[in-house]
Each structure stands twice: as structure tokens, then as C-alpha cells.
Specification:
Organism: Antrodiella citrinella
Number of domains: 6
Protein name: Virilizer N-terminal domain-containing protein
Helix content: 40-55%
Number of helices: 44
Strand content: 5-15%
Radius of gyration: 49 Å
Largest sheet: 8 strands, antiparallel
Low-confidence stretches: 1003-1033, 1036-1066
Distance between the termini: 148 Å
Mean pLDDT: 83
Number of strands: 14
Length: about 1050
């Protein structure tokens, strides 16, 4: 009960305060409250006042006896019973142990305080009988030991730490068990830590270790516990830093390292592991620097399982043996022997935790040894509750739970075919007897079937592979995978002949043929789950098993195929199947979670696909005189990339392209390998290469061509050919746009053609951009090669004639005009007009306008004046002025200066070389004057005079030739799918009719088709430039008359022979 509430203030020189009670009381506890706190919830008016925040109090009680002998009244004495109180702030409760025989009426308080608010609790004392009752001895029955209840016995719990954690959970904001163990037994907190409001959560910041820190500072750093949730890379970096501090061997360093190990032993398990790995024990310890204190710290560290394992090596044990056998002090030798015993006994203890036949007496001795000292016991206890491998061994499941877990383990093991072929697991599966808690009868039957097949060895595996069921299930796939493991094991043991013979006996087919057929069948099965409209998946694990089976099949095929190479159709089928599987693996990677078994199996299978394709395309494995495997693989992939079947076409093409990208030689490949690809592989598949590149998106296509150009290195000219084809396609598309029959289908085709042009320009711009080797090559080739220049110029003129406006086209022209020193003059005029067209395009960025005008002025000055079209130039310049008049923000100083120079050139050239008056069309005089007035103020005097002269010489006509307006190329197109199908459907050509039969009595010569007379005459230039061999006069007939020419060489006659006369007529 509350005896007294008071606020005491000291008085007098002794700083004393006193409380007098009205009757004798027994004080049981005293509560002190901090300033501004409310001691009683029911009375908010009472506010405590205690100053300062911390102080010591001496409390004296007047002792008042309660009982007296023979019924006499107790004699009052003045004896004072002292009690000492240490107030550290906040609300604190102090227990006062006042006995039943005494009470008090006076309480005196002394101390260095200004005021103290306290509540005194206890009871009122009453008079008791003068003499105690007579003691009568009794006989007590013997107490039998009561076993610990199962709920309180850690040895019967699934988790031995469960009881301790549950008790801690009863305490509000209780620290974790691991932290309590470290602070109680190992890391003794300092007084300052105890008083910290953050205690016990005081952790060292390992990332803030000073650069000049030494081992002694590290040891001080580790006096506090390390947080359990700290990142592993921080621990590893800290440990590496400590390891870098190790210098030459000496006693002080050895002592500090031993201290660090003793402190990390009870810390975060990962810290102990990384620290002991970072420290080279042989570089720190030897027999000369191990004294008693150092060995004592190492003894504590060895109570940690990981540290003990690291110390259990020949070098360290030999060092301890040397110390134990040396002339050191008895304490030192004893410590070395005890450390050796502790290190070796850890293995015995760990074995006894899980082995029912372990050495339990020795394990008990190890426990007694590590429990003999507080620090060692704390390190061992921390290891037992934080090291996962030890915690797992302490779990003690009830029999039914253990049996259930054993069945789960068995099922998990059985999912790995490598485990099923082990004799131990085969025996376990075959000895399974029902009933079971988890394993069903069907599962047991499937496991027995797989185990029996594995037990049969080669014959059972061959039978399984030859007679694969049509309906694939996870169970049948497991048997198939086990059979593959058995075959691989037989090959590992050099039983190749027996394996081949077994396949011929069982299925009358070769090993590789069987594997490839099975592979293609399973690929078709798994491909059905990644179509545009996949079927419902009844068993989610089926896809995982399919990928796993395919991965193991690929590995076995990859192993067998160097010895038994495939040819012809089977070779191509394997490549196609592998590419389809490669596409499916990426689809699985997108559809399933990254942590799912299906995704993991798909990623492993994807790598196996790459390995197989690279093996098939190995240029060094092809026999001399035959087509390279790389040739067949690349051609097959290029052609198959266009046949997506039921899959998403865009995804299919992109993944086949990815596979080809991995297949092409890397920059660091051997020169012979690169030469084989450049000289013998790629030149033979140019047409499929071009067809495949046409279906790629712009970025992938540009990357593909860039890759081929860098691979070729200008040896064969692969990039030249592909870009020439691109320009041809571009010109054909432009020519097709010139025809128009105004039908609905024609309008759709025109949209396609326009989009095709947009893609071509974006492709060229992508290749030209940047500073890569391909960009430099393209800009040089397209401006210097005669064929390329001619075709490109045709495209540019066609673009100009149709008034095609495109920012990509303008940027291409700007890039090409950066260096015109080596440019073919044929491109000067069309490029300058393209730049002018870009200047009048309202979508051209304002910041680029002066650059385009300058480039145009520089390149058009190189065009011969007779080739210039003054009317066209005047129209383009007029359009530029009209555009600038409507947008004043584009009329900056740079634009004004460049435009003035271009206008001056136009006026001068027209007056001097065209002998006519320069005319600007499409701009009003008001608009022209507005632009000129706005730019002339910022011109220098010479330029201003040139502008004034040009203005005086120009004629302005606000009329333009009628046109349909500029053609804006679309960035994207949207059409219904059925319209796309109609547009890409080939035009139906009527079948030719059978010609009428003629009578057989016709002239013999009428049965012979004779070429027209012009076919017999060739131009003299064809003699040196044509692709066919040309014979003069009767050279061909004379050559065929010699005996060697009439021999049968089993070769078809040449199809490229022209017989004629190119000599002068007689």
C-alpha cells in the first residue's frame, strides 16, 4: 500500500530531509519519479519534481522492534538502519528488505540533491504476541524427483531455443536471444554502454573503420556486438582489411590477432567465417610467440565451430604440439594441450549430434571442457544457436514428423536422375513399404519403375529410350532422364561399343538417331506450351520436367555427335529443333518467375542450345572438301527464322537472331576461325542473309550489318553487297510510289511502301550514327563507290521528285556532307537539295537550321553552275523564307549569317552563269522583307551590304507550281490483320493452257529453239568485263576436238558459254 507521497528538499549543512510516520510501518519499496512525470494516473494534478537527473541517496530508518520476550512491551531504540540508493534518471523502483520483527517511524534522507519526488510503499506494523509459538518437529516424506514437463524440456522441442525465445517474448521490447548470449557471457558491456538509452542495440560501424587503424583499434571496435542483419559484403571487406594489417611475426601481433578471434567467435557467424578465412594462421602463429595469455584467447575462439575447423590443420596442430613439448611454463604447456583437445573434440561433438553411434563420452568431455569457463561457454552457446548446420542437428522431430520429412526428402532426391542411379537410393526405393504419410501408391509405383530400370543398367535404359511413350508425363520423363544418365555413365566407363550394339539390337537404329528423334519429339511437345494460343496446362511441373529432359538430351547429343556426325536432313532437323527450343527458353524466362524451377531449367537448357549449335558450326571439325557445318547451320537458321509456325513471329525472329549473334565468331576469336566464316561460310548464304535481315527491326538489322562488317573487315565486301541490296530495294520502293491506280488495295500498298522507305532511312541513319568502324565504312563507301554512288543518287533524285520530307533523310545528308573532300561529285547536287528541303521543313529543330544551311552552301558551291536549276533553287529558298517568317524563333544570328551567304551565292550564280534574273517563288514581299529586316541588324557591314544587294536583285513571286504537297513518311502503320494478309498474299497468275498438238510430219528444225540473231553477237567490252567466258571464231569447237576434251569427266557442260565472232568481218 502507499504509505507516503512526498517531495523532499534538503535542509541544513548536511543536506538532510526527514519523513515521520504516524505509526510504525514496514517499508517494502521506494519509487523515485523524474521531473514533470505523473506518478498517479488517477490524479493528473500531482507532478513530480526531481533534480538533478542522477544522484546518490543515503536512507536511514529508525529501527523499532515489534516483539519482546515474555509479553513485555518492546523497547524503543534509536538505532538507524542505513540503505543506499543510486538514482540514474527516469522512474526507478528500489526494494527495501525490512524484516517482520522491525518497523520504523522515522526515515532520514541524505544526498546531493535539490529535490526528490518519491512514493513509499509498505504496510502498517501491528503488535505481535510476546513469544513465538512452541516449535514441534514434523516428519516429511521423501520427495521423488519429478521429470521436467515435456513443454519445458528443450531436448523434446523441435527447436531447442524455442522455450528461451518464448520467455523473452514475455518481456516488452526484449532483445534477441543471440544478442543476450553475447552480452551475458562474451562481450561485457562498459559502464557507458549500460547507461546509454540505445543499449543493448549498440553496434560498431564496420564501414567507418579509419584508414590508419591498426589491430589494436580493430580489437576495440569488436568490443561491441556486430548486427546480425549486416550485409555480407561489408563483413568480407572488413575482414580483408584486417587481413591486410598482418605484418612480420611478433608476440604483440599474435596476441592482438588472438584477441580479435576470441571476440569475433561469438559474433555474427559470417563475420567469424570471413575473418578466419582472411587471416593466414601460418603467417601469424608459431611456437615462439604463443604464451599463456595468447593461448587463453585462442582457447575461447576455438569454442566456435568454424574457427575450430580452420585451426584443425597440420601446421597449427604441429605448432601447438611444439609448445606443449617445449620448455615453456607449465601453464603455457597446459593451455596448448587444452587447445589441441578442444579443436579435435569439436569433430567428435558434431558427429555425436547426428550419429546415434557417435563417441558420446568424448563428446560429453568436449562439452565439459567448453563449459568450464564463462567466455568459452558463451562462444559455444552462440555457435549452437546461430550456426545453421549445428541448429539443424539439434532439431528433434517426433517420429511421425520425421517420417513425413524423410518421405519429402526421398521425393526431392528422386527428382534428380543422378541420385536415382545411386545403388543406395535404388535399394531405399525398392525397400519402401506402405503405408506412407506423403508418398502415394502411384508415386511409389513410378519410383519403383525408375529404380528397377536404373538397376537393370544398360539394357533397361536402352529399352526405355527406344520405346518412349507418346504421352509425356512427369513420371515418364523421370524414367527417360534416368535412362539418359545410365547411358552417360556407360559412356564414361568407355563402354561405347556395348551401348551402340544395344541400340541396334533393341531398336535397329543408331544411338544418335534415337537421341535426335526423341529430342525433336519433346521439342514439339514443349513448343506447344509457348504458342500464341497455348493449351491449358494441367500439371504445372510438366514444363519444368520437359526442359530438364531436353537439357540432358542436349548434353548427351553434344557428347556423342563428334564421334557420330549427322548429315543431310537429320542435321538440319537438329538445328531447327534446337532453335525452336532456344525460342521457348526465352518465352519461359518471361512467363515464369525468375526463382521458379521452370525458369531455372529453361535458363540451363538455353545454354545447352548454344553449346550444341556452336559445336555443330565448328569450322575445324568439317572434313576437307565438304560443306562446312557452319555453312549448313547458318543457312538453316536464316531460313528457319522466317518460319515461325504458331509462335509469336516477332519474338521468334528476334530469338533466332540472338542465336545467330551468339554463333558468329567473336572479335577475339582465332584468325583461322574468322577467316573460315568470312571466306567460306557467309559468302555462300548471302541471299538467305539478306532475306532474314529484311524481317528484323531497324535496331537489330543495323546491329546485324554492323557485326558482319566488323567481322568481314573489308576482305570479302559483305557489307558492300548488303547495302547495295538495300539501296536497290529502296529505289524499287520509290519507283513503285510513282504508279497509282487509285484502288483501295493500291492505297494500302502505298502505305506499306512509304513505311518501307521510312525503315530504310532509319536503318541507314542507325548505321551512320556514332564513331564505329561500320559508320566510317558506310559513309566512305556510299560516297565513293561508283555503283553505290549511282544507286544512291538515283534514290535521292527520286526522293526529291516526290518531295519526300523526313528528318532521318536530312540527318543522313548532314552526316555525309561533313567531309566532301573524297565524295563523288554526282552526289553534290542532290545532297544540297536534300539539305534545302530539310531547312524548309517546319519539324527540323531550330538548333540544326544554321548547320544545314551552312552544309548546303558549302556543297552546292561545288556543283557546276550549268547543272543548277535556278527555278528549283528559287522555289526552295522562297519556301525557307516563308517558313522563317511564320516562326520568328528560328531567325537567330547564326541562321541569318548563313542564310545571307547562301542567298548571295544564289543571286551571284544566277546573274553570272544563268544570264537571268534570280527569282524567289512561294514567298510574299512582306514576308521576305520581314525576315531580311529581322536578320540584317546583327550582320557585319559586309554581309549587310551583300544582303541589300541581293534584295535589290531579286524578283519575288508569291506563286508556286501546283503539287500534292510534301510526302511525310510514317513512323508506324496500323492496319487490321486481315488487310495485311490480303496485301502480302501473292498475286494469282492463271495457269498456262496446254498448247495445241501439231502433226508429227513437221520439219525437224521446227523442234529446235534458236536464239535470236542478237544473241550471237556480243559487245567487245563483254570480252573483258562480263561474267561469262567468250570464245572468238571457232575456238570453242576447236577445243572440243582434242582427245582430252572428249573424255567423260562426269561434269555437266558449262551453262555460261557464248559462241560468236567478235573479230572484224572478213
Amino acid at each position: 500500500m502507499l504509505l507516503q507521497w512526498c517531495v523532499l528538499e534538503p535542509h541544513g549543512p548536511g543536506s538532510l530531509a526527514a519523513i515521520r510516520f504516524s505509526s510504525p510501518v514496514r517499508v517494502q519499496s521506494i519509487s523515485i519519479f523524474p521531473t514533470d512525470s505523473q506518478p498517479f494516473a488517477g490524479n493528473a494534478e500531482i507532478i513530480a519534481r526531481t533534480e538533478p537527473q542522477a544522484f546518490y541517496l543515503e536512507v536511514y530508518f529508525n529501527a523499532h522492534p515489534i516483539t519482546a520476550p515474555d509479553g513485555q512491551k518492546a523497547k524503543v531504540t534509536n538505532a538507524l538502519v542505513p540503505t543506499f540508493l543510486a538514482y540514474a534518471g527516469g522512474q526507478m523502483d528500489f526494494v527495501v528488505g525490512m524484516s517482520k520483527e522491525h518497523a520504523t517511524r522515522l526515515m532520514i534522507v541524505k544526498g546531493a540533491f535539490e529535490s526528490v519526488s518519491m512514493a513509499i510503499y509498505g504496510e502498517v506494523a501491528s503488535e505481535t504476541p510476546s513469544s513465538p509459538p512452541t516449535y514441534t518437529p514434523k516428519t516429511y516424506a521423501s520427495v521423488d524427483p519429478v521429470p521436467t514437463p515435456r513443454a519445458l524440456d528443450p531436448s523434446n522441442a523441435n527447436d531447442p531455443t524455442q522455450l528461451a525465445r518464448q520467455l523473452l517474448s514475455l518481456i516488452p521490447d526484449a532483445p534477441p536471444l543471440e544478442l543476450i548470449v553475447r552480452l551475458m557471457f562474451c562481450l561485457k558491456p562498459s559502464h557507458d554502454d549500460w547507461d546509454s538509452p540505445d543499449f543493448p542495440y549498440l553496434y560498431p560501424d564496420l564501414e567507418q573503420l579509419p584508414e590508419e587503424a591498426d589491430l589494436e583499434q580493430v580489437s576495440e571496435y569488436l568490443m561491441r556486438p556486430v548486427a546480425d542483419d549486416i550485409k555480407e559484403d561489408v563483413l568480407a571487406q572488413f575482414s580483408d582489411t584486417v587481413g591486410g594489417m598482418i605484418g612480420e611475426k611478433d608476440g604483440d601481433q599474435t596476441y592482438l590477432v588472438a584477441g580479435i578471434l576470441s571476440r569475433v567467435a561469438s559474433q555474427n557467424p559470417e563475420l567469424a567465417r570471413t575473418m578466419i578465412q582472411a587471416l593466414d594462421l601460418s603467417a601469424v602463429f608459431d611456437a615462439s610467440n604463443l604464451d599463456e595469455e595468447t593461448l587463453s584467447k585462442l582457447l575461447n575462439a576455438a569454442a566456435n565451430a568454424d574457427i575450430a575447423r580452420c585451426m584443425n590443420n597440420d601446421y597449427f596442430l604441429d605448432v601447438l604440439k611444439s609448445v606443449a613439448d617445449s620448455g615453456a611454463t607449465r601453464e603455457t604447456r597446459t593451455a596448448a594441450q587444452q587447445l589441441t583437445s578442444r579443436i579435435t573434440r569439436w569433430l567428435v561433438l558434431e558427429d555425436a549430434l547426428s550419429n546415434t553411434q557417435g563417441d558420446f563420452p568424448e563428446a560429453a568431455a568436449a562439452l565439459a571442457d567448453m563449459s568450464s569457463q564463462e567466455a568459452s561457454f558463451g562462444v559455444w552457446l552462440a555457435s549452437m544457436i546461430t550456426h545453421q548446420d549445428l541448429v539443424t542437428k539439434l532439431y528433434d522431430d517426433v517420429p511421425s514428423k520425421g517420417g513425413l520429412d524423410a518421405e519429402h526428402v526421398l521425393i526431392n532426391l528422386a527428382e534428380n536422375p543422378q541420385a536415382i542411379v545411386r545403388p543406395e537410393l535404388i535399394k531405399c526405393i525398392l525397400n519402401l513399404q506402405p503405408p506412407h504419410s506423403f508418398i502415394t501408391a502411384q508415386t511409389r509405383s513410378n519410383l519403383r519403375e525408375a529404380a528397377l530400370m536404373a538397376d537393370d543398367g544398360l539394357e533397361g535404359a536402352v529399352n526405355e529410350l527406344v520405346h518412349t511413350p507418346e504421352q509425356l508425363t512427369p513420371e515418364s520423363l523421370l524414367s527417360l532422364r534416368v535412362a539418359l544418365v545410365v547411358i552417360a555413365s556407360e559412356l564414361d566407363e568407355d563402354h561405347e561399343y556395348e551401348v551402340v550394339q544395344a541400340f541396334w539390337r533393341e531398336g535397329s537404329r543408331s544411338l544418335l538417331t534415337c537421341l535426335v528423334s526423341m529430342f525433336l519429339a519433346i521439342v514439339e511437345e514443349v513448343g506447344g506450351y509457348f504458342t500464341v494460343h497455348p493449351p491449358p496446362l494441367s500439371n504445372p511441373s510438366l514444363v519444368t520436367h520437359l526442359f530438364q529432359a531436353l537439357d540432358e538430351l542436349l548434353r548427351l547429343i553434344l557428347r556423342v555427335i563428334p564421334t557420330y556426325p549427322l548429315v543431310g536432313r537429320a542435321f538440319r532437323a537438329l538445328v531447327i529443333g534446337t532453335s525452336n527450343l532456344f525460342v521457348c527458353t526465352d518465352a519461359a524466362d518471361m512467363l515464369y518467375s525468375q526463382s521458379s524451377p521452370t525458369c531455372a531449367a529453361a535458363q540451363e537448357t538455353r545454354q545447352s542450345c548454344l553449346d550444341l549449335v556452336r559445336s555443330l558450326a565448328d569450322t575445324s571439325a568439317s572434313p576437307e572438301g565438304s560443306r562446312l557445318g557452319a555453312h549448313v547451320v547458318l543457312q538453316t537458321l536464316l531460313e528457319h527464322g522466317l518460319h515461325y509456325e504458331k509462335r509469336d513471329p516477332a519474338h521468334h525472329i528476334l530469338q533466332v537472331f540472338c542465336l545467330i549473334e551468339f554463333l558468329l565468331p567473336m572479335p577475339d576469336s582465332e584468325d583461322a576461325h574468322v577467316a573460315a566464316w568470312v571466306q567460306h561460310v557467309i559468302p555462300n548464304v548471302l541471299r538467305p542473309l539478306w532475306s532474314f535481315s529484311q524481317v528484323l527491326d531497324v535496331e537489330s538489322k543495323a546491329h546485324f550489318v554492323r557485326r558482319l562488317v566488323e567481322l568481314d573487315g573489308g576482305v570479302v565486301g559483305i557489307g558492300d553487297w548488303m547495302l547495295q541490296e538495300e539501296l536497290k530495294e529502296m529505289f524499287e520502293a520509290l519507283q513503285a510510289l510513282t504508279t497509282n491506280d487509285n484502288t483501295q488495295a493500291d492505297r494500302k500498298r502505298r502505305i506499306f511502301r512509304q513505311y518501307q522507305l521510312s525503315l530504310s532511312l532509319r536503318f541507314l541513319l542507325d548505321l551512320m550514327g556514332g564513331s564505329s568502324t561500320a559508320a566510317h565504312w558506310l559513309t566512305t563507301w556510299i560516297t565513293t563507290d561508283e555503283d553505290a554512288v549511282h544507286t544512291f543518287a538515283q534514290c535521292l533524285w527520286s526522293l526529291l521528285e516526290q518531295d519526300v520530307q523526313s528528318l532521318q533523310l536530312t540527318t543522313i545528308a548532314k552526316i555525309l556532307c561533313q567531309d566532301i573532300s573524297s565524295m563523288n561529285p554526282e552526289l553534290f547536287y542532290p545532297l544540297s537539295l536534300i539539305l534545302l528541303q530539310g531547312c524548309k521543313n517546319v519539324h527540323t529543330p531550330s538548333s540544326e537550321l544554321h548547320v544545314l544551311i551552312k552544309a548546303c552552301r558549302e556543297i552546292i558551291a561545288s556543283v557546276p553552275p550549268p547543272n543548277l536549276d535556278a527555278d528549283r533553287l528559287g522555289s526552295d529558298l522562297g519556301a525557307i523564307f516563308a517558313t522563317l517568317e511564320t516562326n520568328s524563333a528560328r531567325r537567330n544570328d547564326e541562321v541569318g549569317n548563313e542564310l545571307t551567304q547562301l542567298l548571295t551565292w544564289f543571286v551571284t550564280t544566277t546573274l553570272q552563269h544563268k544570264d537571268s534574273t534570280p527569282v524567289l517563288r512561294g514567298v510574299t514581299s512582306e514576308a521576305f522583307d520581314t525576315v531580311c529586316d529581322s536578320i540584317q541588324d546583327n550582320l557585319d557591314p559586309v554581309a549587310r551590304a551583300d544582303l541589300d544587294a541581293s534584295r535589290a536583285s531579286l524578283i519575288l513571286i508569291d506563286e508556286i507550281s501546283p503539287s500534292a504537297g510534301p510526302l511525310i513518311l510514317p513512323e508506324t502503320i496500323e492496319l487490321p490483320f486481315h488487310e495485311v494478309e490480303d496485301l502480302v498474299r501473292p498475286i494469282e497468275i492463271p495457269l498456262p493452257s496446254t498448247p495445241p498438238r501439231k502433226a508429227l510430219n513437221q520439219d525437224v528444225l521446227s523442234l529446235v529453239t534458236i536464239s535470236p540473231p542478237t544473241a550471237l553477237i556480243r559487245s567487245p567490252t563483254a570480252f573483258t568485263t562480263g561474267l561469262t567466258k567468250t570464245y572468238t571464231k571457232n575456238d570453242f569447237r576447236q577445243l572440243r576436238q582434242i582427245p582430252s576434251a572428249r573424255q567423260n569427266t562426269s561434269r555437266l557442260p558449262s551453262m555460261h558459254v557464248d559462241v560468236g565472232s567478235i573479230a572484224d568481218s572478213p
